[in-house]
Sequence to fold (284 residues):
Amino acid sequence: MGLFSGLEEIGMGGLTNVKVFEDEKAKLAAAQKKRKEPVELKEVDFIFDKTYKCPVCDKEFKARTVRTGKVKLVGSDSDLRPKYQFDTLKYDAVTCPNCGYSVLTRYFNINPTSGQMKLIRDNVCKAFRGIKEPGEIMTYDDALTRHKLALLCSIVKRGKASEKAYTCLKMGWLLRGKSETLPKDTPNREAVIKGLQEAENEALVNAYEGFTEAFSKENFPMCGMDETTVTYLTAELARKIGKYDDALRLCARVITAKNVNDRIKEKARDMKDLIYEATGKKES
Ligand SMILES: [Zn+2]
Fold:
């Protein structure tokens, strides 16, 4: 019976066949198999509840938040909309469920002035009737509601043009994301997509107007972007909404800017080509 002989007499007969050392080869194979089948992480695996303290009503609340640095960037659109393995943009606005104060997360730490607080309390909080808690992950509709409230708060508090523009831009991107991922079995799918595209265009028109206003009133960096990036972005927004002359004028500024990386100049040249193609005009 070997190493364990005799143990069966004290009831351990069933265990006397155990190995002292596990088979290393089998262990290695099992480990390799595990490595070959990486666990696919889903959106919910990147989300946690972050605690905020509302500057308007002083109450603490939790909001779904993306763990930064863990999500892979997979590309971007011509208007700089970043694309990750799932749409992280849905988590970029927070709403206090108690009073309705809403803002893009990037501005959360900039507290409204006392005058702005009063405007928000009088015009938003007094009318606010609560907001539906999202599920484990934020749907596009959850996100759009929060972004709309953030835009409303930025208007009511007479916020900067760039903040309003950036909020509109993010709404446009969300509407695009919703349209791109609309389930195949959505009733009247074509009409719904058309409606989403029209709403996106309206958001981009407002973003364009806001950035144009911000150019003359604000300093750079703006919304975390340097002057050339905002110029390029505004040019692309102008192109998308059909303001080709404005787009070309802004493109020229990007192309002739000094100390700018070649990639953004290249993008501006591509945009110019697209406009010439669309209008049938040639470069003069
Ligand atoms: Zn609040």
